[in-house]
Each structure stands twice: as structure tokens, then as C-alpha cells.
Amino acid sequence: MKIGFIGTGNMGTILIDAFVESHAVPPENITITNRTIKKALTIQERYNDVNVKHSGEEVAKESDVIFICVKPLEIRPLLTKLLPNLNKEQCIVSITSPVSVEQLESVVPCQIARIIPSITNQALAGVSLFTYGQSMGKDYKDYLWRLFSQLSTPIEIENNVTRVASDIVSCGPAFFSYLLQRFIDAAVSETEISHEQATSLASEMMIGMGKLLEKQIFTLPTLQEKVCVKGGVTGEGIKVLEGELGEIFHHLFHKTHDKYYEDISEVDDQFK
């Protein structure tokens, strides 16, 4: 399969790196472009056999699967430009949540999938979220599933949980990185530990906890039970979290969904 990328921002670049590093796609089978072409050329410096083109139309002509990695409001105008170079034998994959597969299918003749990746995919880990269009054939479904299985755990989701699933999988690393940094900052502020040592300890703790979960040695509830000895220090810390966290994550999901619905409204206006 010939793979194309229109847009080499953060997530586009992460996917290109993951495809190449996992040997899922040979570099010579990847064609890329970006509005700022220098970004695409920087990727080509890492992988000499990657092909760089100066327009999305050129990428579309060269590719079987075309990854659209641009901002939501840029997708509709881009598809209009690409339309003369698209056909029903091609597959378009959007990586942005506010644009539905139905909207994409209303514009182009291609087979359609929405696949929401995560920054964790760069480490060949984490989850990728799949939603297929009605036009999607079995061959492309199987191909994309195999492709992403080499750098993630693919999970098919319904449209009604797109935002919350993306919050957990794609935004989650940023949310919990922020919480971990606050944890480290408090340790440094309240004790004599250095920032460097606290960061090292916290990072290794997170890696170790991830391995416990990955190997299914513990679940999240049993992990807490195992560490939280009755009457011990951990229990006192849990009491603080129970008392002070409140509904912080409820508010977080409210805010992300408010922004999501705002984006959907703007996208709907374009596709109408």
C-alpha cells in the first residue's frame, strides 16, 4: 500500500515516525506534504526514502491511503481541492474528532475511516480509536487494523463516545503529566528533596505502575488496595485526595465536551 500524509504537525509526524520505526510501512511507500514544506523536508532528513510533495493533490495522486492531519476547519476546503484526484478505490483517514465519517463521505467518493491516535503511539504503545464509514470495505478495514496493531491497541468506538474516548486516550497523557508535575512540585516545595530526584522517582514510579497494569498483575482498584495498608501513610494520603479532588474530572469532561460541541457546530456549518 502507498500511504500519504497531508499535514505533518505533531500527530502526523508521530504517526509517520511510528509507522517507520515499527517497520509497519517502508519509508519509500510514504508520501508527505505540509503547508510549511520545511516541516516535511525535516522528516525526509530522518528517513531519506520518504517522498515529499508540494501539494495535497500530488499526495492524493500517489497514495492508496491518505491520512488527513490538518485542523478541523481546514478539512472541508482541503477535500474540495483534492476531489478531482480521488476515487472509490482509495481510502481517506481523518485523525480529528469533530469531523464525522458521514460528513467525509458526503464530500468524497473514497472509503472513509476516522482514526484518533495518541502521543503514546510514538512509543508503539497505547490505543488508537477507530470509526468506519459505511463505504469502508473489508480489505481496508483489515489493512488499517493490522497497520495500527503494530504501534497501538486499536479499539473501535461508536460516534457518541468519540470525545470522551479521545479525552482518555489522546488528551489523557497531557492531563496526567500535568497532575504528576504538580505532585513533584509539591514534594519539592514541602520537603528537602531536589526537583531532579523527585522527577526521577516519580517517572520511574509511573513506568513501574504501567508495567504492573500491562502485565495484568494488578487492576487499578487492586493496585490501590495493595499499597493502601489500613491505618498506614498511604491511607492518610488517599483521604486528602478524596476530600480535595472533588468533581475536578467531572468539570474537565464538561469543559472538553463544551469545546468539542463548539467545534462540531463550526464544522457542520462548513459541510452544510
Automatic annotation (TrEMBL):
Organism name: Sutcliffiella cohnii
InterPro entries recorded: 6-PGluconate_DH-like_C_sf (IPR008927), NAD(P)-bd_dom_sf (IPR036291), P5C_Rdtase_cat_N (IPR028939), P5CR-like_CS (IPR053790), P5CR_dimer (IPR029036), Pyrroline-COOH_reductase (IPR000304)
GO cellular component terms, semicolon-separated: cytoplasm
PROSITE patterns: P5CR
Catalyzed reactions: L-proline + NADP(+) = (S)-1-pyrroline-5-carboxylate + NADPH + 2 H(+); L-proline + NAD(+) = (S)-1-pyrroline-5-carboxylate + NADH + 2 H(+)
Location relative to the cell: Cytoplasm
Domain Pyrroline-5-carboxylate reductase catalytic N-terminal: 2-97
Sequence similarity: Belongs to the pyrroline-5-carboxylate reductase family.
One GO-annotated biological process of the protein: L-proline biosynthetic process
Function: Catalyzes the reduction of 1-pyrroline-5-carboxylate (PCA) to L-proline.
Catalytic EC class: oxidoreductase
Residues engaged in binding NADP(+): I6, G7, T8, G9, N10, M11
Swiss-Prot/TrEMBL keywords: Amino-acid biosynthesis, Cytoplasm, NADP, Oxidoreductase, Proline biosynthesis
GO molecular function annotations of the record: pyrroline-5-carboxylate reductase activity
Protein name: Pyrroline-5-carboxylate reductase
Predominant cellular place of this UniProt entry's protein: cytoplasm
Record Pfam families: F420_oxidored, P5CR_dimer
